[in-house]
Specification:
The chain is mainly β. About 0% of the residues lie in helices and about 50% in strands. β3 (about 25) and β4 (about 30-40) form a beta hairpin. This is FmdB family regulatory protein.
Length: about 45
């Protein structure tokens, strides 16, 4: 799994289908489309 963080608020989500690529995605916290950047990869990570 690859976890990404929102550049505005730091919210983290799993976007495994887009591994290693920055991308734009709707942020549930900011309630707008923001840039998400890869943070780390791992298995069995829980928040």
């Amino acid at each position: 799994m690859t976890y990404y963080s929102c550049e505005k608020c730091g919210q983290m989500i799993d976007l495994s289908a887009f591994e290693g690529q920055p991308r734009r995605q709707d942020c549930p916290v900011c309630e707008e489309t923001t840039l998400w950047t890869p943070e780390f990869e791992g298995e069995g990570v829980s928040f």
